């Protein structure tokens, strides 16, 4: 029997608690602290909710205090952990405004990430605000359920009449939110310092497909512009970049997240971006202390090294691994490839592993093979659509390093195979001869995956 304390109960924390209680409930005492009033909010639903593609927020949660307590945990909500004594093995939290000290035998840190505050004049988070409330009205950070609620309330406020919205950051969250506001018929400007969108996940040829898609749907793109200031008298009135000044009513800052690791207090080893450094068992540098999700590193199979990839999918898996290990049943993570997807105005894109650009940066000698082909046999007259596939592989070892796909139908399942290929170090030549079934309803006798692999030099 171990006493396991979990700090943070969003995706990673909840996953670890579920793993412990579903598998070894009677053997362990589990105590959970979260500073928020809700847990398990699926941020991926934020843009869908704001853009009215779903009717409400009810389905965006899959766990709560009651669920975890019904399995046997003790859960303290609205209770920030303020410090941890790693020698005495105690955590100190504020529960109902009073100091509460809890001892632990095993500790799981799942404190996640916080929005990056870029050096922009006028952009600041109110001191002590756990909900990332900005000092300037209508400047919004997007992380929590409450942030989505605030945006929706403001948009519904007729007195404010918010029509012109600037979204800063053209990563997947910024692009999704730009689409959401456009669906509400707002005048949307998407700004990024880089001269393209989704730069971390796609090479230029594929990201240009998304760029065109955004433009075709009426979003003004201000790529290659650096935001210098957000101005206004108490509330947002203007956004100023190095190239232009635009009058706007709301600014969304979506430039990324940094690991929330203050509780490490300099005692836990950290990665270059401050994330808790963990091994494949999710163990930190201090015995009996695990870290999971956005506050921790991952093992990245595409670079064969430690990396930081903040995704809910990684949070869930790392939570499972830490849950088993903290309960005394040793397992190791398989590592990750950073697999991801996005669907904007009907254009679906998925990728995994390294882009060609990134592969060069990480010191590989990358080559690529790319194809745009019909999904199904040419005689299939209906529901046949184009798919673009780009595979990145290493010229020297021929091992697959990454893949990117785009289509106007759901091709997402294809990327899972590439994820496994990267994990298992499969060569491009083996993909050429892979047993891929054929049925005209689904694909071609020689699928685009085989064709691309065969064409690889
Ligand atoms: C808008 C948006 C869209 C996204 N879309 C996707 C997507 O489509 N797919 C995907 O895979 N990922 C997506 N993500 C990323 C995903 O949400 C994160 O990777 C995930 O939330 C990480 O989970 P986590 O539990 O590690 O951290 P977090 O979600 O950051 O949760 C950390 C928890 O710790 C608590 N906490 C922090 N400090 C303390 C403390 N001192 N004391 C007590 N509690 C504390 C917090 O209240 C919080 O509940 C999206 C994120 C956002 C914001």
Automatic annotation (TrEMBL):
<dbReference type="InterPro" id="IPR023753">
    <property type="entry name" value="FAD/NAD-binding_dom"/>
</dbReference>
<dbReference type="InterPro" id="IPR004099">
    <property type="entry name" value="Pyr_nucl-diS_OxRdtase_dimer"/>
</dbReference>
<keyword id="KW-0274">FAD</keyword>
<dbReference type="Pfam" id="PF02852">
    <property type="entry name" value="Pyr_redox_dim"/>
</dbReference>
<feature type="domain" description="FAD/NAD(P)-binding">
    <location>
        <begin position="3"/>
        <end position="319"/>
    </location>
</feature>
<keyword id="KW-0560">Oxidoreductase</keyword>
<keyword id="KW-0676">Redox-active center</keyword>
<keyword id="KW-0558">Oxidation</keyword>
<protein>
    <recommendedName>
        <fullName>NADH oxidase</fullName>
        <ecNumber>1.6.3.4</ecNumber>
    </recommendedName>
</protein>
<keyword id="KW-0285">Flavoprotein</keyword>
<comment type="similarity">
    <text>Belongs to the class-III pyridine nucleotide-disulfide oxidoreductase family.</text>
</comment>
<keyword id="KW-0520">NAD</keyword>
<dbReference type="InterPro" id="IPR058076">
    <property type="entry name" value="NOXase"/>
</dbReference>
<dbReference type="InterPro" id="IPR050260">
    <property type="entry name" value="FAD-bd_OxRdtase"/>
</dbReference>
<feature type="domain" description="Pyridine nucleotide-disulphide oxidoreductase dimerisation">
    <location>
        <begin position="346"/>
        <end position="443"/>
    </location>
</feature>
<dbReference type="InterPro" id="IPR036188">
    <property type="entry name" value="FAD/NAD-bd_sf"/>
</dbReference>
<dbReference type="Pfam" id="PF07992">
    <property type="entry name" value="Pyr_redox_2"/>
</dbReference>
<dbReference type="InterPro" id="IPR016156">
    <property type="entry name" value="FAD/NAD-linked_Rdtase_dimer_sf"/>
</dbReference>
């Amino acid at each position: 029997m171990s006493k396991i304390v979990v700090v943070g109960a969003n995706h990673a924390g909840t996953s670890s608690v579920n793993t412990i209680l579903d598998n070894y409930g009677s053997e362990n005492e589990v105590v959970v602290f979260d500073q928020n009033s809700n847990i398990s909010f699926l941020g991926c639903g934020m843009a869908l909710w704001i853009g009215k593609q779903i009717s409400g927020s009810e389905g965006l949660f899959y766990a709560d205090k009651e669920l975890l307590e019904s399995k046997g945990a003790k859960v303290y909500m609205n209770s920030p952990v303020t410090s941890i004594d790693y020698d005495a093995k105690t955590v100190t939290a504020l529960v109902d405004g009073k100091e509460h000290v809890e001892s632990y035998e095993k500790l799981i840190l799942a404190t996640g990430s916080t929005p990056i505050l870029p050096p922009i004049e006028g952009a600041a988070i109110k001191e002590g605000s756990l909900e990332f409330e900005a000092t300037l009205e209508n400047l919004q950070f997007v992380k929590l359920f409450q942030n989505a609620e605030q945006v929706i309330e403001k948009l519904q406020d007729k007195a404010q009449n918010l029509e012109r919205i600037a979204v800063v950051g053209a990563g997947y969250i910024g692009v999704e939110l730009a689409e959401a506001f456009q669906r509400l018929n707002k005048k949307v400007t998407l700004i990024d310092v880089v001269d393209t969108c989704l730069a971390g996940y796609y090479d230029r040829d594929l990201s240009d497909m998304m760029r065109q898609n955004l433009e075709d749907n009426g979003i003004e793109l201000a790529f290659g512009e650096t935001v210098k200031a957000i101005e206004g008298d108490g509330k947002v009135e203007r956004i100023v970049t190095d190239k232009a000044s635009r009058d706007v009513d709301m600014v969304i800052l979506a430039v990324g997240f940094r690991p929330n690791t203050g509780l490490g207090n300099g005692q836990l080893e950290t990665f270059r971006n401050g994330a808790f450094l963990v091994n494949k068992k999710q163990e930190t540098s201090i015995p009996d202390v695990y870290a999971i999700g956005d506050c921790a590193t991952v093992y990245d199979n595409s670079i064969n090294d430690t990396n930081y990839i903040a995704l809910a999918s990684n949070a869930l898996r790392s939570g499972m691994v830490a849950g088993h290990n903290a309960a005394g049943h040793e397992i190791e993570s398989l590592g990750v490839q950073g697999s991801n997807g996005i669907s904007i105005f009907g254009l679906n894109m998925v990728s995994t592993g390294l882009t060609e650009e990134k592969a060069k940066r990480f010191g590989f000698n990358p080559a690529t093979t790319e194809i745009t082909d019909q999904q199904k046999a040419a005689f299939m007259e209906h529901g046949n659509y184009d798919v673009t596939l780009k595979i990145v592989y290493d010229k020297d070892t021929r091992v697959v390093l990454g893949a990117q796909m785009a289509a106007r139908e759901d091709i997402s399942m294809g990327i899972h195979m590439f994820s496994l290929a990267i994990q298992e170090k499969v060569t491009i030549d083996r993909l050429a001869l892979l047993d891929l079934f054929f049925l005209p309803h689904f694909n071609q006798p020689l699928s685009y995956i085989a064709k691309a692999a065969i064409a690889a030099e």
